[in-house]
UniProtKB/TrEMBL annotation:
Name this polypeptide is given: Serine/threonine-protein phosphatase
Gene encoding the protein: LOC100283671
This protein's record includes keyword Metal-binding: yes
Natural source organism: Zea mays (Maize)
Family label: Belongs to the PPP phosphatase family.
Any one GO MF annotation of this record: metal ion binding
PROSITE patterns membership: SER_THR_PHOSPHATASE
Domain of life, per lineage: Eukaryota
A UniProt-annotated Pfam family: Metallophos
């Protein structure tokens, strides 16, 4: 049997005989106190302090509380009240919101946040909170993929209720029943609120329907989650057979879905946005275009076959859209500051 290496024996013995004291263990961090149950503010009106407290509470819960314990701090009744209060404001806004900052007032455009609560809290703190000096336009996709879609959207809804003229929330393609059932938000709500989950989830879906589709900032910047949209081409159909003498028949009009032309802002304003899942066929195609369309290097308008909904539009269409509507910039799914 071979002898063990001398160094292998001497090193641990020397270490054991070292008279120097071992370093003292680092003190354990002080426990973070749990927040109290969030209650609607007395008097009914939200304040900056209340919204700041909500942000702090949501941050703490996301770091220290199991998901299914959230209702102990954020009761279902409060969640529903906040969603309904924000939805009432959003419902009154048009499909196309005009954001007109005063001279020197900055506008921050924020793209997809996808349930990243900590990123949103950092962004608001770093860019400067919404105020009379700073407007925020959030360009959709608040939920799905991230673990805190519910908390993220609630925080932004609170800011909307507090400062409706300084915070604008647009709809993204994930604010739909289909996407939230596939990409995680529905499961998130059910996990956190269990028996109350279906009712709360329906309130969120109803709120999604009320989100506007696009903004024009400072009269020159068009912002939408997807982008450009087609117009409705109406053609007269064949006249019906003649009726009794003296009866006049008006020509019937139908929508031509085989042709494509660039849509107008007036058509965007008249589109029906209160649909959970924008249709990919039929006459109400503008919401799906605005939410799902993508830019392309190829000229013209064409169906977005990869997505199965919306359009692909080329550089020539971008130029035509900007020139026709006297705009300078078209943005989508992005984050930027405009001053």
């Amino acid at each position: 049997m071979s002898q063990p290496d001398a160094d292998a024996i001497l090193i641990p013995i020397a270490a054991a005989m070292d008279p120097s004291p071992a370093p003292a263990p680092a003190p354990a961090p002080a426990p973070v106190p749990a927040p109290t149950v969030v209650e609607w503010p007395e008097g009914g009106a939200l304040t900056r302090d209340w919204v700041a407290g909500l942000a702090s509470t949501l941050d703490w819960c996301s770091r220290h509380l199991p998901a299914d314990r959230l209702p102990a701090v954020l009761p279902p009744a409060l969640v529903q009240r906040l969603v309904l209060a924000a939805a009432a404001i959003l419902h009154r806004e048009p499909n196309l919101v005009r954001v007109d900052p005063r001279p020197g007032q900055a506008v921050v455009v924020v793209g997809d946040v996808h349930g990243q609560l900590h990123d949103v809290i950092f962004l608001l703190r770093d860019a400067g909170f919404p105020s009379e000096d700073r407007i925020f336009v959030f360009n959709g996709d608040y939920v799905d993929r991230g673990a805190w879609g519910l908390e993220t959207f609630l925080l932004l809804l609170a800011w909307k209720v507090l400062l409706p003229n300084c915070v604008f929330l647009l709809r993204g393609n994930h604010e739909s029943k289909y996407c939230t059932s596939v990409y995680g938000f529905e499961k998130e709500v059910m996990t956190k609120y269990k028996d109350q989950g279906p009712q709360i989830y329906r309130k969120f879906l109803r709120c999604f329907e009320d989100l506007p589709l696009a903004t024009i900032i400072a009269g020159c910047v068009y912002t939408a989650h997807g982008g450009i949209f087609r117009g409705t081409i109406v053609v007269p159909s064949k006249k019906s057979k003649k009726g009794k003498k003296g009866h006049k028949y008006k020509a019937n009009f139908t929508v031509d879905l085989t042709s494509m032309k660039l849509g107008s802002l007036d058509e965007l304003l008249k589109a029906r946005r209160t649909v959970l899942d924008p249709p990919w066929e039929g006459s109400n195609l503008i919401p799906g275009d605005v939410l799902w369309s993508d830019p392309s290097l190829q000229m013209g308008l064409s169906p977005n076959k990869e997505r199965g909904i919306g359009l692909l539009w080329g550089p020539d269409i971008t130029q035509q859209f900007l020139r026709t509507n006297h705009l300078k910039v078209q943005t989508r799914e992005t984050s930027d500051t405009i001053s």
